Amino acid sequence: MLSKYHWWRDAVIYQVYVRSFLDSTGDGIGDLAGVRAGLPYLKKLGVDGIWLSPFYPSPQHDHGYDVADYCGVDPIFGDLAEFDLLMASAHRLGVRVLLDIVPNHCSSEHPWFQEALAAAPGSAARARFHFADGRGPDGAEPPNNWHAMFGGPAWTRVTEADGRPGQWYLHMFTPQQPDWNWRTPDVADEFDRTLRFWLDRGVDGFRIDVAAGLFKHPDLPDSLDPEADARSRDSVNPLAWNQPEVHDVWRHWRSVCDGYAAHDGRERLLVGEVSVPTAREHARYVRPDELHQAFFFDLLGAPWDPDAFRKVISEAMQDIAGTGSTVTWVLNNHDQVRTVTRYGECTTEGSGHGAARARAAALLMLALPGAAYIYQGEELGLPEVVDLPDEVLTDPIFHRTGSRARIRDGCRVPLPWSGQASPFGFTPGAESAKPWLPQPDYFAEYATDRALADTRSFWHLYRDGLQLRAALPQLGEGALRWLDTPPGVLGFVRGDGLVCAVNFGTAPTPAPVSGTPLLSSGPCPAGVLPGSTAAWWISDH
After folding, report:
1. pTM of the prediction?
2. Exposed, middle or buried, 456 (CB in 10 Å: 0-12/13-18/19+)?
3. Is 483 within 8 Å of 367 (Cβ atoms)?
4. Residue 233 has pLDDT above 50, yes or no
5. Distances (CA, A) of 528 to 236, 338, 517, 534
6. What pLDDT is stored for residue 374 in this prediction?
7. Among the residues of 372-413, which ranges form H helices?
8. Which residues are paired to 295 by β-bridges?
9. Number of C-alpha atoms within 13 angstroms, CB side, residue 213?
């Protein structure tokens, strides 16, 4: 069941945010055993694989993206034996497993960073990170003016072994996440060991965090526009991001994965989180000898407008698919406002249109050529939880900035599985347990058991779309051809006459084609495409 080569080119991968998926122990935190228990649900949904958020030993300052040991399992999530059971269960069901690997930074509790703190300036231990002398009298100012992605300066000063203020170290996210110095061979060697450790345990590939990072400008100069760099956690400091040397790392990692594939015929996937300004720069990461895929975030960020969608799709097809790779489409992930809420916020007609737009966007994404990633809970139509009290917020962005803007807790609230009250089956057999983030009462409306029982639900739309995608040769990998459509409608043809059309407006419009209807995101009367609706047809022409 796992023998298809180049399986990744049109795969649909489901992102599992482990701590919020399903809790098997009753401690209020999801775990690997919970993921294993949920595999039949994911198989029934029809996904090709899962991507697991970090479960490695970590102090959890950034929910596992501060890794203290890259080759272990944090006890809150289980152990290596449980991981092996999860791998075996997934492969029996024909579900591939990707791990989230974090090569840009580690935890400040990582043994190598602790060794660096105890070592002297200029030592080999400090060379594995970015330590530098400060500026100004007594080195009291940071080495440059860079800002951290999560707020505040990107540098923290250490106290040396003799008790005096000493050097500074770089952290592009939080002080608990020091950046690795990839110009030091020790770092590359250690990640080689990490890759092989997990590949030897059977994993099918890696989602790579901050894949455009890793290398910083060797001189660590001042940013010419530090305020722009600080404006958003999604801003890209060109001196700390997208340096040319990073491509050598991906060529090497690709060679490692290709070596495993040559041995057993089972291709391992590398998919990168690549934040760069243009589709053309994005395409450089997916050249034939580098990453297999890189998330294309422009669709996620596009306003609800047919011209905007057509522009970003066309650019991706030209620049990314032109490399020989396929585009990797996403509408959401663990860092973004949930799609229903995001689309509801950008309409003057009221938030109710957010659900219709999210359904239409899902059907559009599944019809596009290439691969697609679905964030857990999107198949339930979950909205963002926007009213979490300050005292329960865990996002380091909130704690570093004091602002609720761009915080990510609202999309990470544990999933509702069943029942009428929290924990909604998230902690089976432990109804008194409190999930690590509180679930609102209205989550009862979105519980998985209700979604499966209602054929009009988001879940059935996703499941039906995935079934058709797997069954129809026109879908998956390939090309598209744009249709001439009425104003406010976007339409394209896939393969031999399969048409996807989306009405971005609120008023019904004549359907752009005649033919056999296959699937629609909402009620679709004969010959009419209502507003905020997507539909698939087999065209008569």
Report:
1. 0.95
2. exposed
3. no
4. no
5. 43, 29, 11, 11
6. 98
7. 396-401
8. 328
9. 23
Give the pairing type, strands 205-208 and 131-132.
unpaired
Q: What is the mean pLDDT of the chain?
A: 93
Answer yes or no: is pLDDT of 196 > 80: yes
pLDDT digits over 346-372, tens only? 444 444 689 999 999 999 999 999 999
What does the alpha-carbon distance between residue 240 and residue 386 come to, in Å, rounded to a whole number?
Answer: 32
Task: Please answer whether residues 379 and 398 qualify as being in contact, where contact means their C-beta atoms are separated by less than 8 angstroms.
Answer: no
Q: How far apart (Å, rounded) are the C-alpha atoms in residues 321 and 287?
A: 10
**Closest-CA residue to 29 (of 397, 394, 449, 338):** 394
Rounded CA-CA distance 206/70 in Å is 13
SS (HEC) of 76-95: CCCCHHHHHHHHHHHHHCCC
Contact 119, 125 (CB under 8 A): yes
Report how far residue 58's alpha carbon sits from residue 99's, in angstroms, rounded to the nearest whole number.
15
% of the chain at pLDDT higher than 70: 95
Instruction: Provide the phi-psi class of 515: left if phi over 0, else alpha when psi is between -120 and 50, else beta.
Output: left
State the CB neighbour count (10 A cutoff) for residue 261.
13
Work out the average pLDDT over 191-219.
97
Q: What is the pLDDT of residue 3?
A: 56
Helix (H, G, I), strand (E, B) or coil at 435: coil
Q: What letter does residue 250 receive in the DSSP assignment?
A: H
**Rounded Cα–Cα distance for residues 10 and 336 (Å):** 23
Q: Point out the residues that are catalytic.
A: 209, 273
The token duo for 517 is: 């209807």
Residue 112 to residues 161, 172, 177, Cα–Cα distance (Å): 16, 18, 12
Q: Is the pLDDT of residue 39 over 50?
A: yes
Q: Among residues 298, 300, 334, 303, which one has the least CA distance to residue 318?
A: 298
Distance CA 505, CA 532 (A): 6
Q: First-to-last CA distance in the chain?
A: 36
Closest by CA to 238, choosing from 187, 206, 278, 290, is: 278
